[in-house]
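Technical annex, item 7. During the second reporting period the consortium partners agreed on a shared format for inverse folding records so that results from different sites could be compared directly. Each record opens with the tokenized structure and is followed by the designed sequence. A conforming record, contributed by the partner at site C, is shown below for reference.
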């Protein structure tokens, strides 16, 4: 039943930290100053949660603003990204792993909050995916780039969707505890994301490219 299970806040805070670190690295790639690093870390770390709470669940005060631990996680993520940025930018695999874990965690958290709010399967799936990819979309808009999820390429939103769907099925339909269901759901998003990179799974453009 909706409302009877809750994930530890550590899931949400950890995802904010991980995404904030990737936002800081994006700022470093753009050669931004400390203000730019903090803004992109904030947008990437909390953007998905703000969209979830403000647009879909319409919380009076977004959870990420009502608890100082989220902003502290963003600042810590920005600091880690800035401090180790030079090295991490050369270690693409490390950043892919961090991003893949955060994608799964945020997707699960978004789906869980949507279920607790009483939303049905498809709506909870939508909220979970938006929670997972929303920060990256906000980040790309701020740096004036086409959002990554709109482009043909490696599975990203689809990876988040796979994990969210599994989590909702396990918790809402089968009755598995949220903390237990979160593990295979996050692992699924993580695996789909990495396999799409390793095996070259890619989405294609819907329409063929027009000739001159």
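Designed sequence (site C submission):
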């Amino acid at each position: 039943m909706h409302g009877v299970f809750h994930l530890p806040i550590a899931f949400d805070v950890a995802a904010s930290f991980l995404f904030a670190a990737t936002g800081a690295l994006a700022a470093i790639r753009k050669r931004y100053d400390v203000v730019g690093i903090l803004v992109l870390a904030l947008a990437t770390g909390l953007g998905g949660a703000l969209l979830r709470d403000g647009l879909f669940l319409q919380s009076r005060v977004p959870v990420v603003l009502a608890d100082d631990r989220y902003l502290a996680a963003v600042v810590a993520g920005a600091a880690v990204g800035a401090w180790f940025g030079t090295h991490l930018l050369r270690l693409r695999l490390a950043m892919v792993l961090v991003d893949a874990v955060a994608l799964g965690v945020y997707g699960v958290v978004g789906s869980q909050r949507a279920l607790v709010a009483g939303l049905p399967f498809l709506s909870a799936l939508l909220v979970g995916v938006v929670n997972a990819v929303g920060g990256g979309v906000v980040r790309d808009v701020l740096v004036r780039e086409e959002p990554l999820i709109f482009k043909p390429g490696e599975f990203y939103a689809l990876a988040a969707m796979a994990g969210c769907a599994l989590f909702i099925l396990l918790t809402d339909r089968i009755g598995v505890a949220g903390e237990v269901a979160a593990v295979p759901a996050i692992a699924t998003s993580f695996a789909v994301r990495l396999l799409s990179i390793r095996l070259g799974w890619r989405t294609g453009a819907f329409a063929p490219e027009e000739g001159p």
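Residues 168 and 174 are 9 Å apart (CA to CA). The radius of gyration is 17 Å. All partners now use this format for quarterly exchanges.
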